[in-house]
Amino acid sequence: MKTSRDALSSESRRRLIAGAGAVAAVGATRAFAGPVGSMAALGFAELPDGTLAEQTLFALPGKVPLIKKTFRPPNFETPVKYFRTAITPNDAFFVRYHLAGIPEVNARDWSLTVAGDSAERTLKFTLPELRKTLAIAEITAVCQCSGNRRGLFEPHVPGVEWGAGAMGNAVWRGVRLKDVLAKAGVKAGAVEVVFDGADHAPLEKTPDFVKSLPVEVALDPNTLIAFEMNGKPLPHWNGGPARLVVPGWTGTYWVKQLARISVVSKPESNFWMSTAYRLPRGLFKTPTFKSQLYSPNEPITTMVVNSLITSLENGQQIPHGKPIEVQGIAWDGGSGIARVEVSTDLGASWQAAKLGKDLGRFSFREFALSEPAREPGARVVMARATGNSGETQVEHLIFNPAGYHHNVIQRLYVEII
Amino acid sequence: MRTLAFVLGLSVAGAPLAQESKVQLVNAPGKDKAQQCIACHSVDYIQMNSKFMDKAGWTASVNKMIKVFGAPIPESDVEPIAAYLAQHYGKAPAK
Fold first, then answer.
1. Contact A271 B68 (CB under 8 A)
2. Span A90-115, mean pLDDT?
3. Looking at residues A74-102, what average pLDDT do you find?
4. Residue A278 forms beta bridges with which residues?
5. What's the complex ipTM?
6. Mind listing the domains of chain A with CATH numbers?
7. Are A198 and A103 a contacting pair, CB within 8 Å?
8. N or C: which end of chain B has fewer CB within 10 A?
């Protein structure tokens, strides 16, 4: 029997394209046009042409080769193969900075100031003081950039054109932010807690990267100041010596190289809170950042439910008789993954995948399903995660101008030969 | 220009990766003005965001860099930079 690419019948091609919509059609065309492992394998074929042409694998000091989006400030994405385990290795963990001034901060020299008009007193901690005076806490949690998968937006929107790898899952170890705040004393009128890292812009006029959280999120026992990641000191590129860990919330709040915390009675209004990282109000069913509702939009808060197939590449050929092994990871904003369903027939039917070990509600959750591949031809593989909250991944993009919260059900093409 | 030279000096001192110099903008009129962008970021930000914005989109981007991020780019350079970016990194005009 003839099993070349030409064997993909015009009928199955038509079905693929008609069923999967415009984005999938582009993916199908490109996937079948080039060999598996071409540049598109560094991300997704739907990325902007300029991104596909410019991105390359490059190793920052201490990192394995990651997908270079920009050199300065450094924005580097984790290739999909590193998501085949639930914990993302430190040396493969994505790197994301807004401002190019990134100092090397020695753990011995590091100190953290806690102040603000709603703090009872101003305090300064060194790393040994934090370790000595406060209980050590640990949590497994996903850190995902708000704009992960922005590059897959149709139409494209400006920004860092991420594929699927602006995220990672790690075991974070440090102290509870609430314990640090208790030492300083939080006054009754406190509204937000503001975080500033040691990074800065080359120009003095550029707004410094400063973020705030609602005071109740800052006081949540899961919110940590972490100085270890997967049992090692926090790497420089991921915010060492110490960073904020806000389980469930998007990466923008996980301030790196944390230097100063302010407990305040008024909403923080710098550019990074008032203009950037915002969504049209009410577009997503995520928690509302109540003190920041002073314009038609609202800050992004927690992650939406999502999944990633890690065992298959677009355009991969599988001999008939062998199973289609569908494996991957799923996560959400902290309700935990209830189920992942897999389809190998473009969504006509769905089967429940087997879930892997539960590492906690903020962690990646592995899933797996094996499906026999009997008939030669093109197959579209999809995975759809649902959180304990009841929220499920969407079929169609919920467009927003800044390119956040892309959780469209992934479609991968495999060819049974 | 003195301000810009000062800024460039600072950014070099900020130790950008040597590989950054391999990323080059298209050689064409307007490139010299667009090179002002490197005061704050590598130019791969431009390639990465191509080719899907029209001249209005690029104009908005350049204005954001000046008005929000404080880029010391003279007002008179906005048009030539946006024109250069639209021509070499912009989407093809609708036919």
1. yes
2. 96
3. 97
4. A299
5. 0.88
6. 5-33+304-416 (2.60.40.650), 90-299 (3.90.420.10)
7. yes
8. C
